[in-house]
Amino acid sequence: MPETESPLFRPLTVRSLELRNRIVMSPMTRSYSPGGVPGADVVEYYRRRAAGGTALIVTEGVAIDHPTAVDNSRVPHMYGEAALEGWRRVVDAVHAEGGRIVPQLWHVGPLWGAMTADVDPALTPMRPSGIWGELGVTSYGKSYVERASAPTRAMTLEDIEQVVAAYADAAAAAARVGFDGIALHGGHGYLLDSFLWEGTNLRDDEWGGDLTRRTRFPAAVVAAIRSRIGDDLPIFYRFSQHKQQNYEARIAHTPDELKAVLTPLAEAGVDVFDASIRRFDMPAFEGSDLTLAGWAKKVTGALSMAVGSVGIATSLRESRLQGSAPVRNNVPELERRLGEDEFDLIAIGRLHLADPALATTLRTGAELPEFDRTVHEAALI
Q1: What is the pLDDT, as a whole number, of residue 149?
Q2: Using one digit for the tens of pLDDT, what is the confidence trace for 188-203?
Q3: With bands split at pLDDT 50, 70 and 90, how would you rate the model's confidence at 373?
Q4: What CATH architecture applies to the domain 7-21+62-76+104-341?
Q5: In the chain, which ranges are E strands?
Q6: 236 within 8 A of 184, measured Cβ to Cβ
């Protein structure tokens, strides 16, 4: 579709955030920040995507200031002067190219120890009820699953207060650095998601027990962030049905249950729901062609963002197993759904690794690149 007609290139405003098009770089963990400090290579990595025309960059997961937030020393932090100065350089470089950028704040919760077995045994993973989750279809290896399956103590009320405060502190630090909003990783079995999932939240207090109470912790995090960053900056919230412990898990089996999960988050301050699925065009519930991003928008009235296998014929999990991913030109279907306002933004991950100027490629109608995991995930920039 010509640029002048393509809904991919319509501008969008979310609070103070003004986007030149609807193309977003999806968050992807890179582990290129030794000591948690993003360096010059990270600056260049994000700058190139902004220079290529991408409107909004959602960074890789960024650790909040909590002892068990992230178990990989090469994942960047959102605390400490060195890390914040590194992020300031990233933000300035992206802005200089006309792009916008938000950090994805991250606490791995029950999945502590998945990135490395060399974790401090004196530290307790943050788990709502002390359990890792109901094992199902997973890509994790046997050794990690055996280690992680051992029960730990449940999060205390003090733990909950500390983590909420750490999220709010990280968001305030990001705002000071100059980021254009805040993103939260609330999917895939990580901490925020683990409170929503009945497979990890068995609490019977105010933080669990039924679907309504299971939403209270992530909603409290969102509300704390909103109170610290004010009304100008938007909040993005990634959620998912699937969990890394079990790809067949669900937090909502019906649209009504999805509304019960997402509405408290919208009321707390979420502006955009980032619906993480394997394929952006996959129907979410039986009897409807509407995607998870489409349902998120419909049941909350908030904006939504789709993600998953744009231009690629295999899911992320499949491409990891196979190494490469054949091209699938599903851009016309993407444009159709965007044009019908089913969702408002499209986040693209793997093709942004294969082609830093992906937005320009889409704008000009050039041939889509083929993603090769062995080449593109290992590439520094």
Answers
A1: 95
A2: 999 999 999 999 999 9
A3: confident
A4: Alpha-Beta Barrel (3.20)
A5: 12-14, 17-19, 23-25, 56-63, 100-106, 182-185, 235-240, 272-276, 303-307, 324-325, 345-348, 371-372
A6: yes
| DSSP at 35 | G
The kind and range of the H/E element at 40 are helix 40-51
- Assess contact for 189 and 110: CB atoms under 8 A: yes
| pLDDT tier at 315, thresholds 50, 70, 90 | low
Q: Report the percentage of the chain scoring pLDDT > 70.
A: 95
pTM beyond cutoff 0.90: yes
Question: Known catalytic residue: 237?
Answer: no
The predicted structure's pLDDT at residue 317: 60
DSSP 57: E
**195/203 Cα distance (integer angstroms):** 9
**What are the residue boundaries of the structural domains of the chain, listed by start?**
7-21+62-76+104-341
Catalytic residue among 45, 46, 167, 190: 190
Distance CA 323, CA 373 (A): 5
The DSSP code for 27 is P
Q: Are 351 and 312 in contact (CB under 8 A)?
A: yes
Question: Region 69-85: what's the mean pLDDT?
Answer: 98
Q: How far is CA 218 from the centre of its chain?
A: 14
